[in-house]
Amino acid sequence: MNMHSDPQSSSTPPASAETNGPSESFRFDDTGALLETHLPFPRRQGKVRDVYDLGESLMIVSSDRISAFDYILPSGIPGKGELLTAMSRFWFDAIDSGEIGGKLRDSGIPLAHHLISTDVPDVVAKIVDPAPLVGRIMVTRKAEVVPFECVVRGYLEGSGWRAYQETGEICGVKLPAGLRQCEQLESPIFTPATKAEEGHDENVPIDVMIEQLGADTAERLRLMSLTIYEDAAKLAARRGVLIADTKFEFGWHDGQLILIDEVLTPDSSRFWAADEYTPGQSQRSFDKQFVREWLQASDWDRNSPPPPLPQEIVQKTTERYREGAQRLRGEW
Q1: Does 57 fall in a domain?
Q2: What is the pLDDT of residues 59-101, one digit of tens each?
Q3: Which residues form the SAICAR synthetase/ADE2 N-terminal domain (predicted)?
Q4: What is the domain range of residue 57?
Protein backbone atom coordinates (compact mmCIF):
# COMPACT_ATOMS: atom_id res chain seq x y z
CA MET A 1 0.00 0.00 0.00
CA ASN A 2 1.37 3.39 -0.95
CA MET A 3 1.99 5.76 1.94
CA HIS A 4 2.89 9.17 0.56
CA SER A 5 3.65 12.18 2.70
CA ASP A 6 0.33 13.70 1.58
CA PRO A 7 -2.28 10.90 1.67
CA GLN A 8 -5.64 11.82 0.22
CA SER A 9 -8.37 12.31 2.75
CA SER A 10 -11.46 10.15 2.59
CA SER A 11 -12.86 11.17 5.98
CA THR A 12 -13.78 14.31 7.81
CA PRO A 13 -11.05 16.69 9.01
CA PRO A 14 -10.14 16.65 12.72
CA ALA A 15 -12.24 19.17 14.51
CA SER A 16 -14.23 17.70 17.36
CA ALA A 17 -12.99 17.74 20.93
CA GLU A 18 -15.55 15.11 21.83
CA THR A 19 -14.81 11.41 21.69
CA ASN A 20 -16.57 9.58 18.88
CA GLY A 21 -18.49 6.52 19.94
CA PRO A 22 -17.40 3.06 18.77
CA SER A 23 -20.37 2.82 16.38
CA GLU A 24 -19.24 6.00 14.62
CA SER A 25 -15.55 5.20 14.36
CA PHE A 26 -15.44 1.42 13.95
CA ARG A 27 -17.45 -1.25 12.17
CA PHE A 28 -17.19 -4.91 13.19
CA ASP A 29 -18.75 -8.03 11.70
CA ASP A 30 -20.63 -10.71 13.64
CA THR A 31 -17.40 -12.50 14.59
CA GLY A 32 -15.91 -9.36 16.13
CA ALA A 33 -13.54 -8.73 13.22
CA LEU A 34 -12.78 -5.04 12.67
CA LEU A 35 -13.81 -4.24 9.10
CA GLU A 36 -13.71 -0.44 8.92
CA THR A 37 -12.33 2.55 10.77
CA HIS A 38 -13.64 6.08 10.35
CA LEU A 39 -11.46 8.39 12.40
CA PRO A 40 -11.56 12.19 12.14
CA PHE A 41 -8.21 12.51 10.38
CA PRO A 42 -7.27 12.54 6.69
CA ARG A 43 -7.35 8.93 5.55
CA ARG A 44 -6.05 6.71 2.80
CA GLN A 45 -7.66 3.27 2.70
CA GLY A 46 -6.06 0.12 1.32
CA LYS A 47 -7.32 -3.42 1.06
CA VAL A 48 -6.35 -4.22 4.65
CA ARG A 49 -4.94 -1.08 6.25
CA ASP A 50 -6.22 2.42 6.87
CA VAL A 51 -3.54 5.13 6.94
CA TYR A 52 -4.26 8.35 8.82
CA ASP A 53 -2.27 11.55 8.52
CA LEU A 54 -1.53 12.92 12.00
CA GLY A 55 0.50 15.85 10.72
CA GLU A 56 4.10 15.03 11.57
CA SER A 57 3.54 11.29 11.34
CA LEU A 58 1.21 8.63 9.96
CA MET A 59 -0.91 6.11 11.86
CA ILE A 60 -1.38 2.77 10.10
CA VAL A 61 -4.36 0.77 11.34
CA SER A 62 -4.34 -2.93 10.45
CA SER A 63 -7.95 -3.98 10.14
CA ASP A 64 -9.21 -7.56 10.06
CA ARG A 65 -10.21 -7.24 6.41
CA ILE A 66 -9.00 -9.93 4.07
CA SER A 67 -8.68 -9.79 0.30
CA ALA A 68 -8.47 -12.46 -2.35
CA PHE A 69 -8.34 -12.30 -6.13
CA ASP A 70 -8.27 -8.48 -5.91
CA TYR A 71 -11.52 -8.28 -3.93
CA ILE A 72 -12.05 -7.30 -0.32
CA LEU A 73 -14.22 -10.00 1.22
CA PRO A 74 -17.32 -9.19 3.27
CA SER A 75 -16.07 -11.38 6.12
CA GLY A 76 -13.13 -10.48 8.34
CA ILE A 77 -10.59 -12.64 10.16
CA PRO A 78 -10.80 -11.79 13.90
CA GLY A 79 -7.48 -10.71 15.38
CA LYS A 80 -5.68 -10.69 12.03
CA GLY A 81 -4.75 -7.01 12.25
CA GLU A 82 -3.23 -7.44 15.69
CA LEU A 83 -1.20 -10.46 14.55
CA LEU A 84 0.12 -8.60 11.50
CA THR A 85 1.10 -5.62 13.63
CA ALA A 86 2.85 -7.83 16.20
CA MET A 87 4.78 -9.61 13.47
CA SER A 88 5.92 -6.37 11.84
CA ARG A 89 6.99 -5.11 15.26
CA PHE A 90 8.95 -8.35 15.81
CA TRP A 91 10.99 -7.76 12.65
CA PHE A 92 11.49 -4.04 13.22
CA ASP A 93 12.81 -4.87 16.70
CA ALA A 94 15.21 -7.38 15.10
CA ILE A 95 16.50 -4.60 12.84
CA ASP A 96 16.94 -2.26 15.80
CA SER A 97 18.86 -4.91 17.74
CA GLY A 98 21.21 -5.54 14.82
CA GLU A 99 20.04 -9.13 14.36
CA ILE A 100 18.93 -8.09 10.88
CA GLY A 101 21.06 -5.88 8.64
CA GLY A 102 24.29 -5.98 10.58
CA LYS A 103 26.50 -6.50 7.57
CA LEU A 104 24.80 -3.62 5.78
CA ARG A 105 25.73 -1.25 8.58
CA ASP A 106 29.25 -2.72 8.70
CA SER A 107 29.64 -1.80 5.03
CA GLY A 108 28.45 1.75 5.65
CA ILE A 109 24.87 1.35 4.39
CA PRO A 110 22.35 2.49 7.01
CA LEU A 111 19.27 0.34 7.57
CA ALA A 112 16.47 2.37 9.09
CA HIS A 113 12.71 1.91 9.14
CA HIS A 114 9.62 4.01 9.57
CA LEU A 115 8.22 2.64 12.86
CA ILE A 116 8.06 5.14 15.73
CA SER A 117 5.62 3.47 18.12
CA THR A 118 2.80 0.95 18.40
CA ASP A 119 1.04 2.93 21.15
CA VAL A 120 -2.16 4.81 20.35
CA PRO A 121 -1.16 8.50 20.17
CA ASP A 122 -2.73 10.91 22.66
CA VAL A 123 -4.05 13.07 19.83
CA VAL A 124 -6.10 10.08 18.66
CA ALA A 125 -7.15 8.80 22.10
CA LYS A 126 -8.56 12.23 22.97
CA ILE A 127 -10.90 12.17 19.98
CA VAL A 128 -11.95 8.53 19.53
CA ASP A 129 -12.27 5.46 21.72
CA PRO A 130 -8.73 4.01 21.62
CA ALA A 131 -9.66 0.47 22.74
CA PRO A 132 -10.30 -0.99 19.25
CA LEU A 133 -6.95 0.38 18.08
CA VAL A 134 -4.79 -1.14 20.80
CA GLY A 135 -2.38 -3.71 19.35
CA ARG A 136 -3.22 -2.98 15.73
CA ILE A 137 -1.60 0.38 14.94
CA MET A 138 1.82 1.63 13.93
CA VAL A 139 2.78 5.28 14.21
CA THR A 140 5.34 5.88 11.50
CA ARG A 141 7.56 8.46 9.87
CA LYS A 142 6.37 9.87 6.58
CA ALA A 143 8.15 8.84 3.44
CA GLU A 144 7.91 9.26 -0.30
CA VAL A 145 7.29 5.73 -1.54
CA VAL A 146 9.64 4.10 -4.02
CA PRO A 147 7.29 2.96 -6.85
CA PHE A 148 8.49 -0.65 -6.84
CA GLU A 149 7.81 -3.72 -4.74
CA CYS A 150 11.19 -5.18 -3.75
CA VAL A 151 10.53 -8.90 -4.03
CA VAL A 152 13.00 -11.53 -2.84
CA ARG A 153 12.51 -15.21 -3.61
CA GLY A 154 14.31 -18.01 -1.81
CA TYR A 155 12.06 -20.80 -3.05
CA LEU A 156 10.22 -21.42 -6.32
CA GLU A 157 6.50 -20.87 -5.89
CA GLY A 158 3.62 -18.61 -6.93
CA SER A 159 4.11 -16.31 -9.91
CA GLY A 160 7.82 -17.17 -9.88
CA TRP A 161 7.07 -20.87 -10.33
CA ARG A 162 4.64 -20.10 -13.18
CA ALA A 163 7.20 -17.85 -14.92
CA TYR A 164 9.92 -20.49 -14.51
CA GLN A 165 7.72 -23.17 -16.07
CA GLU A 166 7.08 -20.95 -19.09
CA THR A 167 10.50 -19.38 -19.64
CA GLY A 168 13.06 -20.93 -17.31
CA GLU A 169 13.63 -17.56 -15.66
CA ILE A 170 12.03 -14.99 -13.35
CA CYS A 171 12.23 -11.28 -14.14
CA GLY A 172 15.21 -11.85 -16.38
CA VAL A 173 17.03 -14.05 -13.84
CA LYS A 174 17.93 -17.33 -15.56
CA LEU A 175 17.52 -20.38 -13.33
CA PRO A 176 18.87 -23.94 -13.69
CA ALA A 177 16.72 -26.43 -15.56
CA GLY A 178 14.82 -29.16 -13.76
CA LEU A 179 13.82 -27.27 -10.60
CA ARG A 180 10.71 -28.50 -8.81
CA GLN A 181 7.80 -26.54 -7.40
CA CYS A 182 8.74 -25.01 -4.03
CA GLU A 183 12.37 -26.04 -4.41
CA GLN A 184 14.90 -23.87 -2.59
CA LEU A 185 17.01 -21.74 -4.92
CA GLU A 186 20.78 -21.94 -4.71
CA SER A 187 20.78 -18.27 -3.67
CA PRO A 188 17.86 -15.88 -3.09
CA ILE A 189 17.03 -13.72 -6.10
CA PHE A 190 15.79 -10.13 -6.31
CA THR A 191 12.78 -9.76 -8.64
CA PRO A 192 11.18 -6.29 -8.43
CA ALA A 193 7.62 -5.50 -9.39
CA THR A 194 5.90 -2.30 -10.41
CA LYS A 195 3.31 -1.08 -7.93
CA ALA A 196 -0.30 -1.10 -9.10
CA GLU A 197 -3.01 1.01 -7.49
CA GLU A 198 -5.52 -1.62 -8.61
CA GLY A 199 -5.09 -5.23 -9.66
CA HIS A 200 -1.83 -7.15 -9.63
CA ASP A 201 1.67 -5.73 -9.49
CA GLU A 202 3.77 -6.58 -12.55
CA ASN A 203 7.06 -8.46 -12.21
CA VAL A 204 9.82 -6.70 -14.15
CA PRO A 205 13.57 -7.11 -14.76
CA ILE A 206 15.83 -4.98 -12.57
CA ASP A 207 16.72 -3.02 -15.72
CA VAL A 208 13.30 -1.36 -15.49
CA MET A 209 14.05 -0.27 -11.94
CA ILE A 210 17.48 1.01 -12.98
CA GLU A 211 15.96 3.01 -15.82
CA GLN A 212 13.43 4.70 -13.53
CA LEU A 213 15.44 5.12 -10.31
CA GLY A 214 19.06 5.09 -11.43
CA ALA A 215 21.67 2.40 -11.01
CA ASP A 216 22.85 3.49 -7.55
CA THR A 217 19.37 3.52 -6.00
CA ALA A 218 18.36 0.26 -7.68
CA GLU A 219 21.52 -1.48 -6.47
CA ARG A 220 21.03 -0.22 -2.93
CA LEU A 221 17.44 -1.45 -2.90
CA ARG A 222 18.58 -4.84 -4.21
CA LEU A 223 21.31 -5.14 -1.59
CA MET A 224 19.07 -4.01 1.28
CA SER A 225 16.26 -6.36 0.25
CA LEU A 226 18.49 -9.41 -0.11
CA THR A 227 20.25 -8.74 3.19
CA ILE A 228 17.02 -8.29 5.14
CA TYR A 229 15.59 -11.45 3.62
CA GLU A 230 18.70 -13.55 4.23
CA ASP A 231 19.02 -12.45 7.86
CA ALA A 232 15.29 -12.87 8.51
CA ALA A 233 15.28 -16.30 6.86
CA LYS A 234 18.08 -17.46 9.16
CA LEU A 235 16.25 -16.16 12.22
CA ALA A 236 12.98 -17.79 11.14
CA ALA A 237 14.67 -21.11 10.30
CA ARG A 238 15.98 -21.34 13.85
CA ARG A 239 12.34 -21.27 14.92
CA GLY A 240 11.14 -23.84 12.40
CA VAL A 241 9.73 -21.43 9.81
CA LEU A 242 10.78 -21.13 6.16
CA ILE A 243 10.33 -17.78 4.42
CA ALA A 244 9.75 -18.79 0.81
CA ASP A 245 9.50 -15.26 -0.55
CA THR A 246 8.58 -11.78 0.54
CA LYS A 247 8.14 -8.23 -0.70
CA PHE A 248 9.51 -5.08 0.89
CA GLU A 249 8.61 -1.46 0.39
CA PHE A 250 11.01 1.42 0.80
CA GLY A 251 10.60 5.18 0.85
CA TRP A 252 12.66 8.34 1.02
CA HIS A 253 12.77 10.07 4.39
CA ASP A 254 15.12 13.02 4.96
CA GLY A 255 17.15 11.98 1.93
CA GLN A 256 17.56 8.40 3.13
CA LEU A 257 16.00 5.14 1.95
CA ILE A 258 14.08 3.54 4.80
CA LEU A 259 12.05 0.34 5.12
CA ILE A 260 8.32 1.13 5.29
CA ASP A 261 4.90 -0.52 5.39
CA GLU A 262 4.32 -3.92 6.99
CA VAL A 263 7.30 -6.23 6.87
CA LEU A 264 7.60 -10.03 6.73
CA THR A 265 3.99 -10.81 7.59
CA PRO A 266 1.81 -13.55 6.04
CA ASP A 267 0.16 -10.83 3.93
CA SER A 268 3.47 -9.84 2.34
CA SER A 269 5.36 -13.14 2.54
CA ARG A 270 5.01 -16.88 2.11
CA PHE A 271 5.75 -18.79 5.35
CA TRP A 272 6.03 -22.57 5.59
CA ALA A 273 6.62 -24.97 8.47
CA ALA A 274 10.16 -26.36 8.17
CA ASP A 275 9.14 -29.73 9.62
CA GLU A 276 6.50 -30.18 6.89
CA TYR A 277 8.53 -28.94 3.92
CA THR A 278 8.37 -31.28 0.91
CA PRO A 279 9.64 -29.89 -2.41
CA GLY A 280 7.84 -30.89 -5.58
CA GLN A 281 4.38 -29.87 -4.39
CA SER A 282 2.54 -26.93 -2.88
CA GLN A 283 3.12 -26.34 0.83
CA ARG A 284 0.85 -25.56 3.75
CA SER A 285 1.30 -21.85 4.38
CA PHE A 286 0.52 -19.54 7.29
CA ASP A 287 -1.76 -17.16 5.43
CA LYS A 288 -5.12 -17.02 3.66
CA GLN A 289 -4.67 -20.32 1.85
CA PHE A 290 -7.97 -21.68 3.24
CA VAL A 291 -9.80 -18.59 1.91
CA ARG A 292 -8.35 -18.87 -1.60
CA GLU A 293 -9.05 -22.59 -1.80
CA TRP A 294 -12.65 -22.20 -0.60
CA LEU A 295 -13.32 -19.40 -3.09
CA GLN A 296 -11.79 -21.42 -5.93
CA ALA A 297 -14.06 -24.37 -5.07
CA SER A 298 -17.18 -22.18 -4.78
CA ASP A 299 -19.40 -21.04 -7.65
CA TRP A 300 -18.24 -17.42 -7.32
CA ASP A 301 -17.46 -16.01 -10.77
CA ARG A 302 -14.76 -13.53 -9.61
CA ASN A 303 -16.55 -10.76 -11.50
CA SER A 304 -19.11 -9.92 -8.83
CA PRO A 305 -18.99 -9.16 -5.09
CA PRO A 306 -17.54 -12.19 -3.30
CA PRO A 307 -19.68 -14.27 -0.93
CA PRO A 308 -19.34 -14.27 2.87
CA LEU A 309 -16.98 -16.89 4.25
CA PRO A 310 -18.32 -19.85 6.24
CA GLN A 311 -17.47 -19.71 9.92
CA GLU A 312 -15.32 -22.82 9.57
CA ILE A 313 -13.10 -21.10 6.98
CA VAL A 314 -12.83 -17.97 9.12
CA GLN A 315 -11.81 -20.07 12.13
CA LYS A 316 -9.24 -22.14 10.21
CA THR A 317 -7.72 -19.01 8.68
CA THR A 318 -7.50 -17.33 12.09
CA GLU A 319 -5.72 -20.40 13.45
CA ARG A 320 -3.32 -20.47 10.50
CA TYR A 321 -2.27 -16.83 10.98
CA ARG A 322 -1.88 -17.38 14.72
CA GLU A 323 0.24 -20.49 14.26
CA GLY A 324 2.70 -18.63 12.03
CA ALA A 325 3.07 -15.82 14.55
CA GLN A 326 3.50 -18.24 17.45
CA ARG A 327 6.16 -20.25 15.63
CA LEU A 328 8.17 -17.11 14.89
CA ARG A 329 7.96 -15.99 18.52
CA GLY A 330 9.10 -19.42 19.70
CA GLU A 331 5.74 -20.18 21.32
CA TRP A 332 4.83 -23.20 19.21
Answers
A1: yes
A2: 999 999 999 998 999 999 999 999 999 999 999 999 999 999 9
A3: 45-304
A4: 22-142
Under a CB-based contact definition with an 8 Å cutoff, are residues 42 and 11 in contact?
yes
**In angstroms, what CA-CA distances link 202 with 217, 255, 331?**
20, 27, 37
Nearest-angstrom CA–CA distance, 61 and 131:
13
Q: Are 285 and 141 within 8 A, CB to CB?
A: no
How far, in Å, CA of 166 to CA of 275, rounded?
30
Query: What's the whole-model pTM score?
Result: 0.90
Residues 132 and 187 in one domain: no
Q: pLDDT (tens digit, 9 = 90+) per residue, 285-299?
A: 999 999 999 999 999
Distance (Å, whole) CA 110 – CA 247: 19
Q: How many domains does the chain have?
A: 2
